[in-house]
Amino acid sequence: MTTREALCAMLAAIMMLTAGFVWMFGPYGLLGGGVAVIALTLFTDEREDDDG
Asked: Averaged over 36-50, what is the pLDDT?
């Protein structure tokens, strides 16, 4: 699995989790989903290869 595919899978999982939270908690579920996307963005380690 490439880095791009892994990030897409993680983003899809967060979106499904957010949908469930919105269904259960209303607008507060959207805030939780936003925090999860921000955390994913902050903790994603993107390294560049030195192959050229």
From this structure: 72
Is 21 within a domain? yes
- Compute the distance between CA of residue 18 and CA of residue 45 in angstroms, rounded to an integer: 23
Flag whether 50 is in a domain: no
Q: Scan for tokens 């469930």, then name that residue.
A: 20
Cα separation, 52 vs 48, in Å, equals 10
Q: Each residue of 10-35: pLDDT tens digit?
A: 888 888 888 888 888 888 888 887 78
What is the residue whose two structure tokens read 């989790």? 17
How many CB atoms are closer than 10 A to CB 33? 19
